[in-house]
Amino acid sequence: MDARGVALAEGLRAVQEARWAEARERLEAALADGPPVAAGLDGLAQALWFLGDGPGAIAARARAFDAHLDDGDPGGAATSAVWISHQHSVRGRRSAASGWLARAETVLDGVPECPGSGWVAVERARRAPVGVEQARCAREAVAIARRTRDTDLEVFATSLLGRAEVAAGHPVRGMALLEEAMVAATSGRVRNTHTLGEAYCNLVMACADAGDWERATEWCEHVDAFARTVGAAPLVGACRAVHADVLLTTGHWSEAEAALESALDVHAHAIPELGDPAAALLAELRVRQGRLTEAAALLADRAETPSSLRALALLRLAQDRAGEAVALLERGLRGSAGDTLRTSRLLATLVDAELASGALAAAADAAHRLGEAATDGLRLTAALSGLASARVAHAAGRPDDAAEPSRRALAEFLVLAMPLDAASARLELARALAPSARETAADEARVARSVFDGLGATASRAAAERLLASLAAVRAPRGLGALTDREREVLDLVARGLTNARIAQALVITEKTAGHHVSNILAKLGVRNRTEAAARLVASRS
Questions:
Q1: Closest CA to 87 of 107, 106, 74, 101
Q2: Residues of the domain holding 461
């Protein structure tokens, strides 16, 4: 072997051992003179990517693509083209990504099945909407990998299939596939660090999607250690963002904040486009904390980023711009077809946005859609559905109908170890109990307030304070003087024995509105039922 061959071999060994800086130095030197070497260029591209040089990695892969074709290796060319397509996609360059995927497909036209065919199927799966088509493409990739005996491809495709199954609402099946992939990946069968890193990413993201916070935390710590060991800057940032999502959800906000700031710092120096999910999560935290100016700054240039739509909608809600929040969420929903968990989170926020904009019917429709999604058996989706149903019932003036879904949501969120959401469900339960069981309602509201206070959720704490203040006022009845003119009209009709339906006819309002007025009257007078309210009116006239 000549000196160039030795340098190439040493550079490729450095790639395999994740010594990226050394790999770049050796491979660049070896490739500077003489004809291009496809394997060396692919290795250089991988080293540059993990060093955070996205444009350099793509340029090296493009040279590898040409070299594979010159060598008469269309399968190798297709694999290089797939990686170029994916890296363009990660950087938000959709047209370039589509073009390179098309090139990969073109060079395989008429070529017998090979690992390159499987990598094309992998990229189709990554680009497909979550659901049947994504799973179909991933299964095709797994089958090709097994027929062509390509272990790296099989592990990668199996992990992708597992994540797709979890996102589509099949957590047991999906996690089994992911664990199968990880057993293979960690047993020494995988040669490519990129493959191992992507398999890890698919696992931790699937755990988070499934609401399996304990498993997600365990794997996040493992992956973070792996990423730091191999010096994989993009993977470090991505993993810390996923871990931060888990920490946020489980109430560890200080740790989440540190993880997100660390992730953003990593991405600022390595593939900045990968930082969008971390920025969106940090913005969501800032909204919860009432730090709206900081949230707006984080989202300033990310309005078109799918991962930012929910955070931006939450910001608009906090800014009393509910109509804009609705539009953002509807846009997000159009891009989440088949992804049960993402759809559920967007629908839950849409219910709040529609209620804030006064669109009760639209909120009820969103809650119904969320209820349909909850039939997939995912505990998180069921909890979100219960809370949404309770909020719609309360807004419609039906507190009795809000109590049971609030209790169900509270129980589910407690099992899932989601303190903010559990406290929100508890506060909704307090609202539902307020007309009939004020002391119990106050107890529930105080517990919720304590949780909000501990987390630093300022807006939610303020909502709990308002409810407690209203309950305290009710315990010291203010008499008929506390009623509005319309409520006095309604009370007069109640005293005459009219039902809500007949009150609605008499005042030309909806029956739901009549019920809402009656609930307010009972609360303001500090009475338990219509009979006591009527007696209070009669006594005032004596």
A1: 101
A2: 345-475
